Amino acid sequence: MKSSKSISRRAVIKSSIFGALAVSIPSISYAKHIISYENNDKKLFHRYPSIDDKIVNEVVGKSHFDLDRVRELVDKRTELARATWDWSFGDWESAIGAASHVGRRDIVEYLIGKGARPTMFTYAMLGGYDIVKSMIELTPGIQKLQGPHGISLLEHAEAGLRMKDKMTNEQIVNSEKLIDYLKKLGDANGKTYDKLNEDELPKYLGDYRYGEGEHEGFSVKVNMRKMLSLGKLGKFGGGLHPVGENKFLYNGISSVYITFQVEGDMVKSLTIHEPDLTLVAKKV
């Protein structure tokens, strides 16, 4: 009896050791691929574990026009289907919002399939007459809200016909029905602003600096809509809507104004007016 107990105990111990090894060996192997703080030769994003801003920016930017690149990025990490970017001064835009206002049905459909959250503006672009009408009836006045870059609900609906050659007849009919409905509401096209005469534009154009750093400044250009735009140095940005003498509202953002300081006929500087910041940039 003693011998039997001894053998049994040895067998249990032996099997336990091999069992432990069987569990631990894969873990040891896997650990080789773990980046430790001491041995990390890859610099992590400064807001890690948040996703790198460059990747988020690219997903939202490419969602305006490049389905193949969006697929490459989102197939690898599906959370990016819900990526959102602040272009400047709180001009927030999601990947699906980007695809919506340019009428890219194919990109919108792909993003929804990956978990993106469609909005009223998305449904307007898709010609969702019943959906959009129900939302407006449930929340009267919602049709006056503006989407990214100050683009109106009606403009989103009209963008839905940009891929008309790839749409079914039913989709075309629904889009046209929705556009007609929104036009009849009379206030689904957003706010209207005065426009500067083309001969007034040149004096504002140029670069403005508020510091010596590489990116510490703005560029004022004329965009495709023949209106002034304010962007980072060397780049286009949001549109400037005239709301007074040398005073502009930035891209439909209700709390951000830009004023230009003029001496004679020469613009000397611009001032950014935010709720908690006033920033002066001199023209160079």
Which tags fit this structure?
9 helices; Serine Threonine Protein Phosphatase 5, Tetratricopeptide repeat; single chain; 8-stranded antiparallel β-barrel; disordered N terminus; two-stranded antiparallel ribbon; 284 residues; 2 domains; alpha+beta
Short description:
The chain has nine helices and ten strands. It has helices at residues 2-31, 53-62, 67-76, 95-101, 105-113, 120-125, 129-138, 153-159, 169-185; strands spanning 84-86, 92-94, 206-209, 217-222, 228-232, 238-244, 247-250, 257-263, 266-274, 277-283.
Topology:
Layout: H1 2-31, H2 53-62, H3 67-76, E1 84-86, E2 92-94, H4 95-101, H5 105-113, H6 120-125, H7 129-138, H8 153-159, H9 169-185, E3 206-209, E4 217-222, E5 228-232, E6 238-244, E7 247-250, E8 257-263, E9 266-274, E10 277-283
Antiparallel strand pairs: 1-2, 3-4, 3-10, 4-5, 5-6, 6-7, 7-8, 8-9, 9-10
Helix pairs in contact: 2-3, 2-4, 3-5, 4-5, 7-9, 8-9
